[in-house]
Amino acid sequence: MATSVDAIHKSSDQINPDQMYVTKKSEYNVKVASDKRQTCYISGICSLPSGHTIVADYNNNRVKMFDKDYNLSSDLVVNCNPQDICTISPSEVAVTTVNNTYFKLIRVRNGKLDILNFTKLPHATLGISCHQEELYITSGTALYHYDLLGNLLKKLYEDTGGGITVYKCAFSPDGNWIYVTNFAQNKLITLATDGTLISTFTDPELQGPKGLHITPTGQVLVCGFYSHSVIQIDREGKKKMATLASQKDGISYPVSVYYNSNSHQIIVGVYANNKISVMEFALLEANTQQQHKAKNTKSFISWALVLQIECQKSEVNNVFKFYQLLEEGECDNGFVIPDQNAFLACNLRNSPDKNCARTDGHTDGWTDGRTDEAATICSPPKNLWLNACG
């Protein structure tokens, strides 16, 4: 199950500012009428600055483009099974294919997908990533560095230990690290840009790692195919930070993951499924040692999100009712309201958009008036509660 309050440190001062928490999950159909196979297999995902999401459908030999609402805009037959896809310019993507040794450049022109050219390489092509207008392509056992014309610049890394040991790859935002999934040995490895091995990560929730993506701020997202999980790993590639989705959340055999910078959503493609999962998330930011106002505001927002997560786990379908049950001691799920001076400062039973505060030191005595102290801690973002508990 996705990470909940049970995995959050007791003190909000210890919350990792990079840790992600899923607040809502939706599904969108990506099957089109002209598909030849019964099910889709979204093996790769990327997006364009225009807001379009482009996916590689391995089963149907197609690349499909969807608008910001995930309605089909265009699709293109690529004649062989597309394995991975990455953005290389505001209107171009690169695609690798399994059944031959080509990568293809596809452009968007007049709102339609069109093959620009293709380049034959001397090895198998699986994963692909673009960094500073250069391509990094995996073969299953090695990672290669190419320019956009298909000229080999360097073989960066190789592992011939058996099976698919070099599957998907991705760069850290600063360009200092390359992350690679080792499917055969259930590992995520982190490399320096010269191919030197920096670290190796394993975890029971990372069995058969496939899809891999790094957000613009450095969060590392990885799919565990056999463990039916999408997890977040720290920037150093050494420690699991959160389970973003699992089989209990409806995720089975995930193969691709992508953070869409346009919509600020995490998109997951799964094996033999006609739908993609789209997850909205939040970061539980740690309190700092700055001024009292900033500290209390972050504390309130963090625990408000914790309340939302706990509400989603319960059978109560309304966050305000859930809060009332907690307050009255009628909801025994082991969740304790923390930091009452900060957390109870807003009347959650009324309107989440209203700045309101209590005037005494107890859980009752609510008022629509605001005190100076409450004004520093009582202005959560209005959209914080919009998706709470359905």
What does this structure look like?
The protein has 390 residues and is mainly beta. The chain has two domains: 18-281, TolB, C-terminal domain (Neuraminidase, 6 Propeller); 292-384. Helix content is 10%, strand content 39%. The protein has helices at residues 292-313, 319-327, 340-343, 372-375; strands at 20-29, 42-47, 53-57, 62-66, 72-77, 82-89, 92-97, 102-109, 112-120, 128-131, 134-138, 142-147, 152-158, 169-171, 177-182, 187-192, 197-201, 209-214, 220-224, 229-233, 240-245, 254-260, 265-270, 275-283, 357-358, 366-367. The protein starts with 19 loop residues before the first strand and ends in a 15-residue tail after the last helix.
Outline:
The protein has 390 residues and is mainly beta. Helices cover 10% and strands 39% of the residues.
